[in-house]
Amino acid sequence: MFEIYCPHCQEYREEEEFHASGEAHISRPLDPDNCTDEEWAQFLYFRKNPRGVHHELWVHAAGCRKFFNITRDTQTYEIKETYKVGEQPTVTE
Amino acid sequence: MSEVIANNEVASAPVLIQQMDQLSSQGARAESPLYHADLASVAREGNQNGGVVLQEVALLGHLVLRGNINNAGFTSGVEKVLGMALPGSLQSAENGDVSLRWIAPDEWLLVVPGAQAFSIERELRDAMDGHIAIVNVSGGQTVLNLSGANARDVLMKSTGYDVHDRNFPVGKVVTTTFAKSQAVIRRTGEQSWELIIRRSFSDYLWLWLQDASAEFGLTVRT
User: Fold this and answer.
1) What's the distance, CA A44 to chain centroid?
2) Which of A1, B44, B151, B175 has the fewest CB atoms inside 10 Å of its own CB, making it the most exposed?
3) Partner-chain residue, chosen from B1, B105, B160, that has the shortest CB–CB distance to A66
4) Cβ–Cβ below 8 Å for A8 and B104
C-alpha cells in the first residue's frame, strides 16, 4: 500500500481510495464533424505506453470523487507529482 | 453527426425546477434502513456497559448542495439561511441541529431535522442564485453515531484512514473507505464519531459493527 496526494482534498490518502483512468491531457477534436478519420481515431483509441515518466488521469473514487492528474514513472511506480485537471505538469522527463 | 441541443431562446428562459416534499402528507409510516434490526429492542435487552456505543439517528433530512465557492450568490445564500459559512476542505460546521460537511471542492452535505428538509431546501433555493444544485438524498443514507472508550479501535479496524488525534481532530470530516463500503466520517467529540452510510450498505455495516465491537462489548442506544 502507498499513499497518493489528492490535490482537491489536499492530503495523502490510501491508494485503495483511487482509481486510474488512463492517459491524461487527451483533448477532443474541436470540430468532430470535420476532422479526419485519423485524428478521430487518435483521439478515441491510440494511447502512449511509455517506459518511464507518464502523465495519467486518476479519480479519487472513494473520497471527493474528483479527477486529477498524476505524473508517474511506469518503471519504478514512483509518483513524481499530482496536479489538478487543467494544470500542466512540472515533471516531464 | 452533432446537433444543436440548445439555442439562445432556451438558454435565456427562466429555469423551472420541480420541487417535491418527499415526506408524505398522508401520515405514511417511515422506516429507517435499519428498521429490520429493531435497535430499540437491542438497546433495551442488550449489553449496557460496552466499550463501544452505537446509536442510529434515523430519518434525518440529507441535502446535497453543489455550487462554486467563488459564486457569491451561492455562498451568501447558505450563510443567510443556515447562519454559518460553508466549511473549507475536510471541515464541518454546526448550528443547533443543522450540520454541514465538506464533501468535495464544489459539494457539501447538509443534515437537518427530517421534517424541515423541504422548507430548508426551498429557503436555500430562494436565497441562492447562479449555477447551483440542491438534491434531497434523505432516503439514500442514514446516520450512525459511534462513541465510547473503544470507538477509535473499531474505526481502526474498519478504515484505512488515520484516525489518530494528530490527523483527525474534532470537527474534521472525511469520505473514505469503511469496511468494504464507504462512509462520510466526522469526528464530533473526543470519543465520538459520526458515520453517514448508504442505505443499501446499512445492514452489512450493522453486521460489521457488531462483529468489530464484539471484543469490546457493544451497547446500542436509541
Assistant:
1) 16
2) A1
3) B105
4) yes
